[in-house]
Inverse folding.
């Protein structure tokens, strides 16, 4: 690699790089180091290289001409040696901060020019015309760019092939694995009463590796929490989290977090306020509503923001019936609804409504024929979820709409789409539903935001009364940070929705195959791949108790859900699997794995490995 | 110990008078007990303005160093310290009858106002009770009572004397200094913690063991606790629950060191190697051995459990005999003859009940035998126990113990 340094003080850089490893690399020809005195290229009589800044201000600036001429001279000399266009770096306190990744990248250039700034700075026109990048070595100001240049060249040279003795001795060190270096010891074994840690003298290499990793993690966590956070998520981290509980809630994406934070800081006005701040907030609210409406093919005015999917379900069911008292006295919901629909429906019984639960088949899909039988002239509302939260079973909402329309088109169809939103392509008109619920935190958005779509023309009565926000349907100051975060999350989820779906499907298929290969028919799969959303995969490891398995997986940093808590009490048993007629023993061993569009093949393989180990261990305690 | 004056010029001279029970009956080691109690009171009141605490003649005096001072909170705190029998919010003055008269009027006025607020109407009946601790005072106790009674009758037209059924009693104590008060709040009693050594409690997370620990602690015993943790068969939350229980107990027992023993491997080994119906008693024996090892490391002289006769299969007399035979130190079971309802009443009183009944350990039923033997013989248990390598597994469990400090 060829590196030319442009400086007013060449000796300063030269001295620093003439000894030790870099010095040897220069001698052996692995690095071709050149030095140019900028002053030599000044066309000024006094060899002047600086002048006063336009617009006033303290100090002097380096002028363009000597720098430009010097730069051209270096490039021409290099060209004579066969080097092409240089990659030019300016050492400057306002540059991006140097790190191992940058050094590695720079080492990939066959020819680099490093310009050392001096005085108060450099004429911007030189920077614009000649420099590819500005680099700083830290948040402090030095008297000139010479020492930073030496630092840069030292660290870049480590990545130049042949500079370090053995190729792996570079890779093992700090930062590349996102960890600081572990403590090191050399002879003697005891120095002034302090011993070398026993493990290092024991000769067991696996133990030594484990000890070093543990120490490196400890030190990094303590001193560089920022680095540690990156490490924890990287493939370097053995114990990184395997999160297969995405149907419970998802991790916010950095973009969503940024939008939420930005909203809290910038759009803090109350959308109802008459001031300019209020108007700005309202504009953002309207924009978010537009984005959300667009994702389901609805009109902006058909979207009501709520604080959760649960609240939206309550508003849909209670709000519709309260505003349409004469629409009928029967409500039909599927037997496998989320409690926010099931319990809401049950609460209607005390108001005189007749609530009927529509059964599902063995796959967990609603029994359309049974539904057809249930619908009568007195039916006011049907609520069936789009995707079941425990098994992933996809409900035929379109068919349900057709069936009820054939009997009485005035019957209202609501669908709780919390598990399907952002995963399935949805068009409310095409689906044929009158109302639809979704929630932000299932699609990498923030908690505290949900929405209800209600077709234009449907009258709802508010459940929460007050200042009349959300067209009077949901009073209370709008949670703008969460709502804007919701819109951002929705945009991202819908952008490549088809591709994401296929990726998740591949991940689910792989996971399923790995499990079947390992256990064959010893496990019981509750999620029929042909009838379910691939984001959810429910499987029973009976006779192992699901909650025990959950804790065993958790101890290996893998997170899943169970439909039934580990209790002898019947009420804790999954109502979904019960409705599917799954035997009690199978239910008690059922675990839900739920994936996201960020689930990788590598994560699936690792997850399966962790799962296999835990199952093997737990089999020891199985009776009989 | 010399008497330290509690009255100060320019203050209202309100203090809390704390009475100690059994300690006063102690002989030569009484001062040790008193020092212990002093330390415990001091610790308890540290965050309440760290008042001065003096003691003299079986009485402790809590004297605020700065105002405002939360007397009610300090009374409650003092009442929760074992060894304290009762306490009173008193007004102090020099032992001079004119001054005593003045504070008696003040105390009576406040009590009358309180009674009125509580809805008492018409005339209020009262009496005066006096104790004279210094014989140099010129009046006798009955003379002081009679005289003060007259002063209060003159001052408050709404008062009348009734020695048999008074609405309130004005207590007057004449010592180096004098104190007047109208109420005595009962406290926990018992002995100061640390005055009777240390014991190690087997803390399961159920209702009983915290109560057992509380009762032993009340007798002046410093408690540390052992919890057997069967992850993943019990959850992290079960551990959190036990630590929370220890924290609640620490309100009375002082700081508690909780040792969490990783117990899964032992449990699995018993499950794999030993006859099902003896599993529970073999497990209890192993727990005793581990607890004893940890107890000795911590300077404890006894183990404490929450067992009572016949509660479950492992708590029959035969089973307890087998369990005890594994331990080489006394095993205290303060609840041995108590009914569950009475245990629950104490658990509610000390505030552990709601935490104890959180449902976090059902998964442990994986290891519960279907038909445990209620009358095992020691010989068969020892024979069955020899089928697994308990020494190695138990020492590994001890090795892996995690220590938490609660309180």
């Amino acid at each position: 690699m060829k590196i030319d340094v442009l400086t007013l003080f060449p000796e300063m850089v030269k001295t620093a790089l003439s000894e030790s490893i870099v010095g040897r690399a220069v001698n052996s020809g692995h690095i071709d180091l050149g030095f140019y005195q900028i002053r030599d290229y000044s066309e000024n009589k006094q060899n002047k290289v600086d002048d006063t800044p336009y617009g006033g201000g303290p100090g002097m600036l380096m002028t363009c001409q000597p720098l430009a001429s010097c730069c051209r001279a270096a490039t021409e000399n290099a060209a004579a040696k066969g080097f092409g266009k240089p990659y030019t770096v300016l050492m400057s306190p306002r540059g991006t901060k140097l790190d191992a990744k940058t050094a590695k990248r720079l080492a990939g250039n066959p020819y680099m020019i490093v310009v050392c700034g001096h005085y108060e700075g450099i004429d911007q026109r030189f920077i614009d015309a000649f420099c590819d990048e500005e680099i700083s070595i830290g948040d402090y100001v030095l008297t000139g760019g010479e020492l930073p240049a030496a630092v840069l060249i030292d660290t870049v040279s480590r990545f130049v092939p042949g500079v370090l003795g053995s190729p792996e001795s570079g890779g093992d060190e700090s930062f590349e694995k996102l960890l600081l270096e572990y403590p090191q010891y050399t002879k003697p074994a005891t120095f002034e009463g302090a011993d070398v840690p026993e493990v290092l003298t024991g000769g067991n290499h696996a133990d030594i590796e484990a000890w070093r990793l543990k120490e490196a993690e400890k030190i990094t966590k303590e001193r560089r929490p920022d680095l540690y956070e990156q490490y924890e998520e990287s493939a370097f981290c053995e114990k990184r989290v395997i999160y297969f509980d995405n149907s419970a809630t998802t991790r916010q994406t950095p973009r969503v977090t940024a939008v939420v934070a930005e909203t809290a800081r910038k759009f803090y006005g109350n959308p109802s306020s008459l001031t300019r701040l209020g108007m700005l907030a309202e504009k953002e609210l309207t924009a978010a509503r537009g984005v959300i409406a667009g994702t389901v093919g609805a009109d902006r005015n058909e979207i009501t923001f709520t604080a959760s999917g649960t609240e939206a379900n309550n508003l849909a069911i209670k709000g519709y019936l309260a505003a349409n008292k004469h629409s009928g006295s029967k409500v039909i919901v599927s037997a496998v609804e989320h409690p926010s629909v099931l319990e809401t429906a049950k609460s209607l019984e005390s108001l005189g409504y007749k609530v009927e639960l529509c059964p599902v088949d063995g796959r967990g899909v609603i029994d359309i024929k049974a539904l057809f039988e249930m619908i009568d002239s007195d039916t006011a509302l049907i609520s069936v979820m789009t995707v079941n939260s425990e098994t992933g079973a996809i409900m035929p909402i379109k068919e349900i709409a057709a069936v009820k329309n054939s009997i009485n088109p005035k019957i209202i169809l609501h669908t709780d789409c919390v598990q399907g939103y952002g995963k399935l392509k949805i068009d409310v008109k095409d689906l044929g539903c009158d109302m639809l619920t979704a929630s932000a935190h299932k699609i990498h958005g923030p908690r505290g935001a949900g929405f209800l779509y209600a077709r234009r023309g449907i009258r709802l009565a508010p459940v929460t009364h007050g200042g009349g926000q959300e067209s009077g349907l949901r009073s209370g100051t709008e949670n703008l940070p969460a709502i804007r975060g919701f819109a951002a999350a929705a945009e991202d989820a819908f952008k490549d929705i088809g591709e994401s779906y296929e990726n998740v499907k591949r991940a689910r298929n792989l996971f399923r195959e790995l499990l079947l290969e390992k256990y064959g028919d010893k496990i019981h799969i509750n999620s029929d791949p042909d009838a379910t959303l691939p984001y959810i995969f429910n499987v029973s490891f009976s006779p192992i108790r699901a909650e025990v398995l959950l804790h065993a997986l958790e101890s290996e940093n893998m997170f899943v859900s169970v439909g039934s808590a580990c209790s002898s009490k019947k009420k804790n048993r999954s109502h979904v699997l019960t409705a599917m007629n799954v035997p009690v023993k199978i239910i008690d061993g059922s675990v839900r794995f739920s994936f996201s569009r960020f689930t990788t093949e590598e994560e699936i393989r690792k997850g399966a490995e962790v799962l296999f180990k835990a199952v093997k261990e737990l089999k020891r305690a199985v009776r009989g | 110990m010399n008497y330290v004056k509690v009255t100060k010029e320019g203050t209202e001279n309100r203090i809390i008078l704390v009475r100690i029970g059994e300690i006063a009956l102690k002989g030569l080691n009484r001062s040790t007990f008193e020092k212990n109690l002093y330390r415990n009171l001091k610790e308890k009141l540290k965050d309440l303005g760290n008042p001065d605490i003096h003691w003299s003649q079986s009485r402790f005096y809590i004297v605020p160093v700065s105002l405002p001072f939360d007397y009610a909170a300090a009374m409650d705190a003092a009442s929760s310290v074992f060894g304290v029998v009762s306490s009173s919010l008193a007004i102090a003055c020099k032992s001079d009858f004119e001054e005593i008269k003045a504070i008696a009027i003040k105390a009576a006025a406040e009590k009358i106002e309180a009674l009125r607020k509580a809805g008492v109407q018409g005339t209020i009946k009262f009496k005066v009770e006096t104790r004279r601790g210094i014989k140099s005072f010129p009046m006798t106790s009955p003379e002081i009572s009679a005289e003060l009674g007259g002063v209060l009758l003159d001052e408050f037209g709404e008062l009348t004397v009734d020695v048999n059924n008074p609405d309130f009693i004005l207590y007057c104590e004449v010592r180096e200094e004098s104190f007047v008060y109208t109420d005595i709040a009962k406290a926990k009693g018992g002995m100061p913690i640390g005055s009777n050594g240390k014991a190690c409690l087997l803390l399961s997370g159920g209702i009983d063991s915290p109560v057992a620990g509380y009762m032993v602690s009340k007798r002046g015993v410093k408690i540390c606790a052992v919890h057997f943790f069967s992850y993943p068969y019990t959850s992290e939350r079960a551990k959190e629950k036990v630590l929370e229980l220890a924290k609640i107990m620490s309100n009375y027992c002082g700081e508690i060191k909780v040792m969490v023993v990783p117990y899964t491997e032992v449990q699995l080994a018993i499950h794999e190697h030993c006859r099902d119906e003896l599993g529970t008693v073999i497990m209890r024996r192993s727990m005793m051995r581990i607890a004893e090892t940890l107890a000795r490391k911590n300077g404890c002289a006894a183990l404490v459990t929450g067992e009572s006769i016949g509660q479950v299969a492992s708590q029959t007399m035969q089973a307890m005999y087998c369990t005890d035979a594994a331990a080489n130190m006394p095993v205290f079971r303060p609840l041995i003859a108590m009914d569950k309802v009475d245990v629950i009443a104490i658990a509610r009183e000390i505030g552990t009940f709601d935490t104890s009944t959180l449902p976090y350990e059902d998964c442990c039923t994986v290891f519960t035998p279907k038909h445990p033997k209620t009358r095992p013989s020691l010989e068969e248990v020892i024979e069955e126990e020899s089928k697994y390598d308990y020494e190695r597994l138990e020492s590994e469990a001890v090795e892996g113990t995690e220590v938490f400090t609660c309180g």
